[in-house]
Design a protein that fits this description.
Chain lengths: 470, 191
């Protein structure tokens, strides 16, 4: 290999983690960080036990409880099967010496929120988790991807994984996002433009001025939804923003050691002139706040738009089925859609800045009568910080419920459920049929758009809210 | 994982695109800590109404598809969540082969780990089979070894599958055991 040839960040991370390579086979890659949660791990630990195998590197493994946990009263868990699943995780972690942030631990939170918050997530690391939104960690310039339970077992046993070298795609975002247009709108617009499959087989690298200007929170939102484009992973080359975010975090070195490691991180960035297998381009200046209307994240339009016209769509039957499920008609203006639920939370949009922005919209206003609105911080520590800033009061005074950290209404495995036929403006990442509860209808939006919808009872263009324009 | 060389079975056509793993197995059934028993929950909200009664408008509930073990589906099958409960449910229900124009990456991998053969097939051919399976009892014979699908009429179509995946399916190998053959290299890497 030509040493001077410009390389992508994926090339560099891949090379550093190669354990074994053989012609005609996937590569065996070393895994630096394995994140574990209660839902996709029990069968993996059971598999180890049945084969008398051990966890190879408990020190590179970190577990939390997020999917099942109640967000109201944590002292009584009504759901016995969920309780068993959490209990199983506790036992598995104890037996294998794995650190666990359980329901009552100060570091508890959604797995993709706490990794970065603790500084476990770092540039250049290979990170896996039995969860498709592991792509979130790519925001730091890590190669992070979701795996199934068999692979969880494999990583527990061997700290490595067989991976085919993915192709790379440069997702170039030119220009600047307008006021009131967020990272969420950017990624929704990308998926709407290129489709829910365009990333299949690729690692997406987001580049361009608009991406550089995003905060780490915004970058996480973008990378989080790479999986909704079908991508194996999504990432962003590290820069000073990345380094600043990580400085002082619990699991990164401090002092001089930090400066040294930070220098290595910055060197990981894709070299000028490196070649990608594919490049797509989108102009940030043209993006409006987005609202999904259908049953996959690609079924999404600008807030000024309308549901599709059935005469000009591909796969007409699928579009008809989606409209029917959503209780919508063709050509229906987005701003005419009335909602009865609002969910601000999930690994896509539950970080402090998300909550701050939503709070700035609802401050001094009231949630529309008939709308149930909840805010679920991404982690216990975010909740504490938000409370310090008085955000909980702002939300509560406006009529929102203020909850404990967890996945909550993103997938409705606990009690936080949108009822059949209910319609939710949600800051989460999936609008699949029944995702937020059987028969529920989900519209994916940014925290600002969700907050404004809570106040108005229907979708509005948040750019018309004076708080943002000023 | 059980080895699989060949599979012959009744075809069920599910002509929808982007079937996500939330549809294959809804979240309320992910709380179990076993790998087994998920078949009863496969496509749960498509098969059953809110009272748990079978929906007559979902094709899989028609008696002519009883015992189906080959699933035909639209593009991007298995997108969304990484839950391996999806292939567990398919397999437990009886599906041994899934044929689609494309698969989501994680599902494709998960299927292979459980001895389900995921086959990528050209859409024109697939649509032809979909029609046949909608109109009459339609059986396909999948020969993994020879990478061939044979319809009862005698027509034969070949398919691609990466050699290393094929080998693992044919032999039902335990992947962890295979990897541990390279343990010295893992240890060397850790130094
Ligand atoms: S918040 Fe939603 S998408 Fe994120 S990890 Fe939890 S369930 Fe998955």
């Amino acid at each position: 290999m030509d040493l001077n040839k410009p390389k992508t960040i994926v090339d560099k991370i891949w090379k550093k983690h190669l354990v074994h390579q053989e012609e005609g086979k996937p590569d065996l890659l070393y895994i630096d960080l394995h994140l574990v949660h209660e839902v996709t791990s029990p069968q993996a630990f059971e598999g180890l036990r049945l084969n008398d195998r051990k966890v190879r590197r408990p020190d590179l493994t970190y577990a939390t409880m997020d999917h099942n946990v109640p967000t109201k009263n944590r002292d009584v868990i009504k759901d016995q099967i969920a309780q068993t699943q959490m209990e199983t995780l506790r036992k598995n972690c104890e037996e294998n010496g794995i650190k666990l942030a359980d329901m009552h631990h100060p570091d508890q939170g959604i797995v993709h929120v706490i990794g970065p918050q603790l500084g476990l997530t770092q540039p250049g690391k290979t990170i896996v988790c039995g969860d498709s939104h592991t792509s979130t960690h790519g925001a730091f310039g890590a190669l992070a991807f979701g795996i199934g339970t068999s692979e969880v077992e494999h990583v527990l046993a061997t700290q490595s994984i067989w991976q085919e070298r993915p192709k790379t795609m440069n997702v170039q975002v030119e220009g600047d996002l307008g006021p009131g247009v967020t990272a969420k709108d950017l990624i929704l617009a990308i998926i709407a433009k290129f489709g829910v499959r365009f990333g299949t087989g690729y690692v997406l690298e987001y580049t361009g001025a608009a991406v550089r200007k995003l905060s780490m929170e915004g970058r996480m939102t973008v990378c989080n939804m790479s999986i909704e484009a079908g991508a194996r992973a999504g990432l962003i080359s590290p820069d000073e923003t990345t380094v600043d975010f990580l400085r002082g975090k619990e699991y990164v070195p401090d002092g001089k050691a930090f400066d040294e490691v930070a220098e290595e991180w910055l060197e990981l960035a894709t070299d000028d002139g490196a070649l990608y297998d594919e490049t797509v381009t989108i102009n940030a200046a043209e993006i409006e706040p987005q609202v999904s209307w259908g049953t996959n994240p690609g079924m999404c339009v600008p807030v000024s738009g309308a549901t599709p016209n059935l005469n000009n769509v591909e796969h007409r039957e699928d579009v008809e089925r989606a409209l029917d499920y959503m209780g919508l008609k063709e050509n229906q203006p987005i701003t005419s859609i009335e909602i009865d639920h609002v969910f601000i939370g999930s690994c896509t949009n539950s970080r402090l800045s998300d909550l701050q922005k939503a709070a700035s919209i609802v401050k001094g206003k009231q949630v529309k009568t008939g709308v149930r609105a909840i805010v679920v911080p991404g982690s216990f520590s975010i909740k504490l910080q938000a409370e310090k800033e008085g955000l909980d009061t702002v939300f509560k005074q406006a009529g929102f419920e203020w909850r404990e950290a967890g996945c909550s209404m993103c997938l409705a495995m606990n009690d936080d459920i949108v009822p059949p036929g209910g319609r939710c403006a949600s800051t989460s990442n999936r609008n699949f049929e029944g995702r937020q509860g059987n028969g529920s209808r989900t519209h994916l939006v940014s925290p600002e758009m969700a907050a404004a919808a809570a106040i108005e009872g229907h979708f509005v263009d948040v750019r018309n809210y004076s708080e943002l324009v000023s | 994982m059980e080895a699989i060389q060949e599979h012959k079975g009744l075809v069920f056509p599910l002509n929808r695109t982007n079937i996500d793993t939330d549809q294959i197995i809804p979240k309320q059934f992910l709380k179990r800590i076993e790998r087994t028993g998920f078949g009863q929950f496969l496509f749960y909200h498509w098969r059953f109404d809110d009272d748990g009664q079978k929906r007559t408008d979902f094709e899989l509930n028609q008696s002519k598809y009883n015992g189906a073990s080959v699933l035909l589906a639209g593009e991007n099958f298995g997108c969304g969540s990484s839950r391996e409960h999806a292939p567990w449910a398919l397999l437990d229900y009886g599906f041994q082969v899934v044929i689609a124009p494309s698969f989501a990456d994680i599902f494709y991998n998960n299927a292979l780990k459980n001895g389900i053969i995921p086959i990528i097939m050209d859409e024109t051919q697939l649509n032809q089979w979909m029609k046949q399976a909608e109109n009459s009892e339609f059986i396909l014979d999948i020969d993994l070894e020879k990478q061939r699908i044979i319809a009862e009429s005698g027509t034969e179509v070949s398919f691609d599958i990466p050699a290393y995946h094929k080998e693992k399916l044919l032999n039902g190998w335990d992947e962890i055991a295979l990897t541990l053959q390279h343990e010295d290299k893992i240890t060397a890497y850790e130094k």
